[in-house]
Amino acid sequence: MNTPMIERRAHPRDDTPALMRLKDVMRVSGLSRATLYRQVQAGTFPSPVKIGGRASAWVKHEVEGWITRRMRERLPRKSTAH
What we know:
Low-confidence stretches: none
Number of strands: 3
Oligomer: single chain
Strand content: 5-15%
Number of helices: 3
Order of helices and strands: EHHEEH
Distance between the termini: 78 Å
Largest sheet: 3 strands, antiparallel
Radius of gyration: 20 Å
């Protein structure tokens, strides 16, 4: 008895680590190259990872986390005074 073969395709999971190159990080963060690297040095922006000889990239979820934190900082804080 022949049963039909089920085609299985690999679907990327949402939690799959992804890397972003400098150009993409600059685009989504709104930071210039110089500002981005200055913030990396100051420890206020995620550090890149080496992916080759002279190539670096940023972990996507770390960059997204940085953006989320910036957005939360702009929200007005609830006042406890009446």
